[in-house]
Amino acid sequence: MAFVRLAFFPGATREHFAAVEAAVGDVAPPPARRLFAAGPVPGGWQVVQVWRTAADLEEFNRTVYLPALRRLGAPPWPQPPQVTDLEAAVLLPEEYPPPADAGPAVAGKDPGGARGYSGGDPAQGDATAERGRAGPTH
Predict the structure, then answer these.
(1) Which of 8, 88, 120, 125 could form a disulfide with 129 if both were Cys (CB 3.0 to 4.6 A apart)?
(2) Ranges of Gly residues compositional bias (predicted)?
(3) Residue 134 resides in a domain
(4) Percentage helix, strand, coil, to 5, in the chain?
(5) Given a cut of 80, is residue 113 above it in pLDDT?
(6) Which residue has better confidence, 114 or 14?
(7) Residue 34 lies in a domain
(8) Which residues pair with 10 in a beta bridge?
């Protein structure tokens, strides 16, 4: 279905991430990348990527990311990342709940709390619903 990489960078900050971004430069979003998110979490910096396949991510790393790191000279991160890779069993559309015409494979199905919410249902007006996030304890 999709390949997901979670990378927690212990001790990293927005400044570390900005240096890597600058080294990567102005690159068009790769068509195989479905999602990229990065931000501060307790103890460091979290990156979440969703790609069509692991091979697509490896190609991007080989042709764009790793050459950018080499241009920086010194390692850009205070410590090596803690990486978790997985093949997604469920990947919901960006918009949830999905449109009624999304089909039975998505519409009305939420196996195992796959919405990513820690509780409640915002579609039902539950204001206590909160988005879950991957943190440094993955």
Answers:
(1) 120
(2) 110-119
(3) no
(4) 30, 25, 50
(5) no
(6) 14
(7) yes
(8) 44
Tokens encoding 13: 């900050």
- Torsions phi, psi of 112, nearest 5? 60, 30
Give 62 or 100, the one with higher predicted confidence: 62
Read off the pLDDT of each residue in 103-116 and give the average, rounded to a whole number: 42
- Answer yes or no: do 59 and 107 share one domain: no
* Per-residue pLDDT tens over the stretch 28-54: 999 999 999 999 999 999 999 999 999
Contact 88, 5 (CB under 8 A): no
Same domain, 56 and 14: yes
CATH code at 81? Answer: 3.30.70.100
Q: Are residues 13 and 70 in the same domain?
A: yes
What is the distance between the alpha carbons of residues 20 and 112, in angstroms, rounded to a whole number?
Answer: 36
Instruction: Report the domain count for the chain.
Output: 2
One domain for residues 42 and 21: yes
14 and 38 assigned to the same domain: yes
Sheet strands (E) in the chain: 3-10, 33-41, 44-51, 82-87
